[in-house]
Amino acid sequence: MPLECELKYIGVDLGVLDRKLQVVNAKFCGRYFESNLVYDKPGRVLKESGVLLRLREKAGVAVLTVKKPPNEPVSQAVKVFEEIETGVTDHAAMKSALEAIGFDVAFAYEKVRAKWKYLNCTLCLDMLPYGDFVELEGDEDSIFSCAAELGLNEYETTTKTYHALNIEYRERMGMEPDESFVFSSGERERLLEEIGKE
Q: Pfam families from the entry (predicted)?
């Protein structure tokens, strides 16, 4: 099973980084709106074992993903996990199938992602309802080399999930606990319209 390594950079100006990636001739892979449903069993048994079961829809394409901790010890400098992904032809049917075998939606989240390829890394410029982040994916050496090349080393990094960062954000802001993080209907419509014009 392939291992995926990633590291998040917090508070990066996405517009500035976007322009920098254009200047260095990075490969632009598209910008899209993502809707995600995270499934679990009653009692959150998957979460307790560190497993994520996610159904994602982006640009009309659905993807089912399982992420789990690797069986062998790995570096603590980046987030490392085993990932299995497969395309799904019918989002609604897969949703019904998961629910039919006892999985429920634990939480939902949305983001706008612009994806780039540069120096053996995938860069994801992510706009979430509670902030902007950059996620670098690749092997550990490539991640740190790419970050240095693009001037990202000045930013705080984290291996936490967006789910965990959302919980921390809501606590810090004195907001009611809510595991889901989605855009308001008006903001969602605006973002979808903006992306549709690109």
A: CYTH
